[in-house]
Specification:
InterPro entries: Gfo/Idh/MocA-like_OxRdtase_N, Gfo/Idh/MocA_oxidrdct_glycsds, NAD(P)-bd_dom_sf. Keywords: Oxidoreductase. The chain is of the alpha/beta class. The chain has one domain: 3-Layer(aba) Sandwich (Rossmann fold). The chain is built from 6 helices and 6 strands, in the order βαβαβαβαβαβα. Strands 3-2-1-4-5-6 form a 6-stranded parallel β-sheet, sandwiched between helices. Strand 2, helix 2 and strand 3 form a beta-alpha-beta unit. Helix 4 runs parallel beside helix 5. The protein binds nicotinamide-adenine-dinucleotide (NAD). Nicotinamide-adenine-dinucleotide binds next to helix 1.
């Protein structure tokens, strides 16, 4: 679903840590990739009007709102990008899909199996209406990861019996850092 001129009008809900990262991605993606649709940073949604206004201005969104439900009723929104804490993902995603909006939900998809299953059922119903959804796994499009996925999918390395991964980060190297 997109509007007549082929643009993809985005509403992003949540504008703090991951909202900033997603804003950067929406800004630069069409400058780097040939996209089938031009993303339009239509509306940013937060909880405080002042902070949402300030974030919209700084991050490059056309306007700010504080009620995500109202945004789902708008005709000028094609896709909802969910960057809120995990306990809100299921409610927003299911409502957005039922309103006919494509959904990009930041990982982890949900906090419970029940939430994830409700979201999956809503996504399957939506897909039958050509309304698409995706979980934003950070490394999904990294070339090396995409190549590994393709090698497995094409059967080039045979049946996978064991996977051993390492994920290297230094942000908890400080022994005084609080556990997470
Ligand atoms: N991919 C990654 O590497 C990565 C890293 C950190 C966090 N995350 C995930 O990203 C998501 C967001 O995490 P974060 O660290 O950005 O959280 P955060 O606390 O920094 O930001 C949450 C944002 O959601 C907004 N929000 C909360 N409830 C809202 C509501 N009802 N209506 C409108 N806005 C609402 C808050 O105002 C805030 O702007 C979580 O699912 C988290 O697990 C992913």
């Amino acid at each position: 679903m997109s509007n007549a001129d082929g643009r993809l009008r985005v509403a992003m809900i949540g504008h703090a840590f991951m909202g900033r990262a997603h804003s950067q991605a929406w800004r630069v993606a069409p400058r780097f990739f040939d996209l089938p649709r031009e993303p339009v940073m239509q509306v940013l949604v937060g909880r405080s009007p002042d902070r949402a206004e300030e974030a919209a201005r700084q991050l490059g969104w056309a306007e700010a709102q504080t009620d995500w439900r109202a945004v789902l009723e708008r005709d000028d929104v094609d896709l909802v990008d969910i960057c809120t804490p995990g306990d809100t993902h299921a409610e927003i995603a299911v409502a957005a899909l039922e309103a006919g909006k494509h959904v990009l939900v930041e990982k982890p998809m949900a906090n419970t199996l029940d939430q994830a299953e409700r979201m999956t059922r809503a996504a399957e119903r939506a897909a039958a209406r050509q309304v698409w959804s995706m979980v934003g796994f950070t490394y999904r499009r990294v070339p090396a990861v995409a190549l590994a996925q393709r090698l497995v999918a094409e059967g080039r390395i045979g049946e996978v019996r064991q996977v051993r991964c390492q994920y290297l980060q230094d942000w908890l190297a400080d022994e005084q850092a609080p556990g997470s």
